[in-house]
Predict the structure of Gamma-1-syntrophin.
Amino acid sequence: MDFKTSNEEIKTGVYLLQDGNEEPFNIRLHLAKDILTIQEQDVICVSGEPFYSSERTVTIRRQTIGGFGLSIKGGAEHKIPVVISKISKEQKAELSGLLFIGDGILHINGINVRSYRHEEVVQVLRNAGEEVTLTVSFLKKTPAFLKLPLFEDCTCVPSDQSSGTSSPLCDSGLHLNYHPNNTDTLSCSSWPTSPGLRWEKRWVDLRLIPLLHSRLSQHIPGSDVCRKNAFQVVAVDGVCSGVITCPTAEDCLDWLQAIASNISALTKHNVKKINRNFPVNQQIIYMGWVDEKEQDSVQDRMYSPKFLALRGSSLFKFSAPPVTTWDWTRAEKSFSVYEIMCKILKDSDLLDKRKHCFSVQTECGEDLFYSVELECELLIWEKAFQMATFLEVERIQCKTYACIMESHLMGLTIDFSMGFVCFDAASKDALAGIHLLEGGCNHRPATMNQLAARSPIAEDLRDETLSSNSG
C-alpha cells in the first residue's frame, strides 16, 4: 500500500522476515525518505499501570452454548506452543483487548504447557472444569505459522474467515457447541491483575535502518546466488534488516527500486555537502556500494562489498564509506581516472550468475569486476565514469609518458587538443605523430617538434638520457 503525505512519499507493506535461524514471521516495512523501519506485531499495554509485560492472565468460563469459544493449533510437535487460531465473535466482544489470535497459551490453571503436544493441551482444557485461567503471550511467529493475512489496520481476519484449511495443522475443536447464530455473550469471572489495564495488538518498531550509505543485496552474502523474491538492507554500521521475502518478483523489484532511489538521492545530497570542502579539481563525482569479484581462482564465485568513489583525478576503493578527510588517505587502492577504462558487461561477457556488472581495466592491465543490484545503478556508474574522465581530460590537457623504442628512451606526449607525438628524449626530435586539424588528421613534423618541446616532462626525460649516456 502506497500513499503520500504533504512532504514525502511513504511506502508500506506486510511481508515475511527471516532473521538468522528463526522461523520466518510477518513484519511491516515502512519506507521514508531517509530511513527504513521494520515493525513486528506485538500486544502491548496501552492503559492502566505504567508497566509492560508480554504475558497476560485472563479467566474465562465454559458456556452451555459455545464452550470456551476458542480454537487452537500448534504444539510441541511443531516446535511452537499451542496458539489461539480462532476466537468466536461473542468471546471476542466480551474479552476485547485481552485475548488475540496469535496468542500462545503458556499456562492453563497454573500448569506450564509451553512444551506440551497439541493433544496434551486439548486434554488439559477438557479436564479444566467450568472455569479456566489462561496465561498467554503474543508470539510474533504465529501469524506466518497460522498463514493469516494481515491488513494495514493491524487486525487479523475475523474468525469466520480463518478456517482450518489455512494451516496444515488440525483444529482442536474447543469451540464445542458453538453456533454462528448464537448471540449469548460469554462471561468473564475475573480480569487481569489490574482492572484498569487495556491491551492492544499493534505494530511496534523492530529495527531502524538509516538509508544513507546503506547497501542492498539480493544475493546470498559472498556468492553469485540470487535469492528468489527476497533482499536485505545493510546499514553503514553493519545492522542488517534480515532477509525480507516478497510474494512476487514484481513486488521485490518494486521495493528494491524504491529503496535504491532513496539511497541515491541521499548520496547525491551528501556529496554536495562534502564538495563544499574540496577544491574544484577534487570534487566527488559519485560514490556508492558495489560487490567486487574475488581475484583468487580458488574462490571463483566469491564477492565482497566495496565502496567506490570517483573523486577528482582518482577512483578510490574502500572497505567502508569515507567520513573524514583522513579516511580518503586510507583507501585500499586508488587509480588515476585517465589511466583506467570502465566497461559495462553485456550478457555474453558475464563471468557467472551475477547480472548488472562492469569491469575496470587498470593501467597495469588488471581487470577488476564489480556487480550492482539494479540496472539503474549500472547506468549511474557508467555516466559517472564518463563524467569523471571528461573532467580530468579537460583539466590536464597534455600528458607525457616515458617509453622505450628500439632500446632508446622515448617520450610519448598526448595533447587532447593538438594530437600525439613520439619523440627522442635526448634531442626532442619528433619521430612520429598526428596533429589534429579541423578537417581531419595530418602529419606536421614542425608542429610535432613544437609539441614535443612543450611537453611538461621533456626536460626530465632529456636529463635522464644524458645521465645514462655519461654513465
